[in-house]
Amino acid sequence: MSVVSMPHVGVLPSGALGTIADVGGVTVGHCTLDDGAAQTGVTVIRPHRDDPYRQKVPAAASVINGFGKSIGLMQIEELGVLETPVALTNTFGVAAVAQAQIRAAIASNPQIGREWSTVNPLVLECNDGYLNDIQALAVEPSHYMQALDATASTFERGSVGAGRGMSSFDLKGGIGSASRVASVGSKDFAVGALVLANFGRLPMLTIGGVPLGRELALRRQTAKPRPEQGSIIMIVATDAPLDSRQLKRLSMRAAAGLARTGSVYGHGSGDIALAFSTAWTVPHDGDFVATPPLLNDARLDPLFQACADSVEQAIVDALWSATTVTGRDTHRRLSLHDAVPDLEQLLKPRTT
């Protein structure tokens, strides 16, 4: 593994962990399938340790380009809350993971679907079919439970969980995470991002403003560029007191961080951002909802900057953390470090 230090995006400081877990209460867990042609998995993000069905958190999503097969986004758009942990997996694993989420919610709340309303599972996906034999439908409900049980404030990134079979910029992609601390008046708020990066073509790759992909494409003598057909899921968490309308605005700023890495949101790309706040919860069976004083919209710019920077940093982190993987039919994706032995030299500040 290269000892090259990952460049820091922007001027805002990161939190102590440098991941989405810098937002208090947020935890992440993985279940990784690494068995020959099965190179896939499940990643779970919990907004807090309580029952998310009984204590929902405000949330919103932005569909930047809708070439995806996720489940649960419609109800988030309508009601503005999360009712389950956020689950990430491959495209054909969505149904199995949603079933596991429903069963887990019923196990904790037997009234669901009877005395109470049904539960809204939330599963977001990317297509890992280049490295993973996606037709084998290897992801099972039990893998969601394993990832859920593994959730913690410290977690691996790179070629793990849902990121095991993902590719970015014709290199190995996967799970990345980052955080930023934003000051609003006299208060500091954490904004954290976790991405499932599976997008981009090599010539597009930009890291810290350096068009690294152009140089790498020249070295590879890449043939006629293919269209971008990958996807990315961007999960943004904050402890700032925001409602779902404001979180919708925050989630849209994830696109700024994505664009800085070289993405143009291609026709076949599924680019989805979800934002939630841990500052307050919505009780399932309460008559009234107690909300804290919400931030004035005119004071949201520091959070917008933190969102864009943390998403960009998380994408870089996914590339930085990934390891080389060989999957189905001997398909192989090199990690950034294996593909670019002189990475440090290429990323040095350019002078004129």
UniProtKB/TrEMBL annotation:
Q: What is this protein called?
A: P1 family peptidase
Single GO MF descriptor: aminopeptidase activity
* Superkingdom, taxonomy of origin: Bacteria
Q: Which Gene3D superfamilies does the UniProt record give? A: L-amino peptidase D-ALA esterase/amidase
Q: What are the boundaries of the signal sequence? A: none
Matching entries from InterPro entries are given as: ArgJ-like_dom_sf, Peptidase_S58_DmpA
Q: Which family does it belong to?
A: Belongs to the peptidase S58 family.
UniProt source species: Paraburkholderia azotifigens
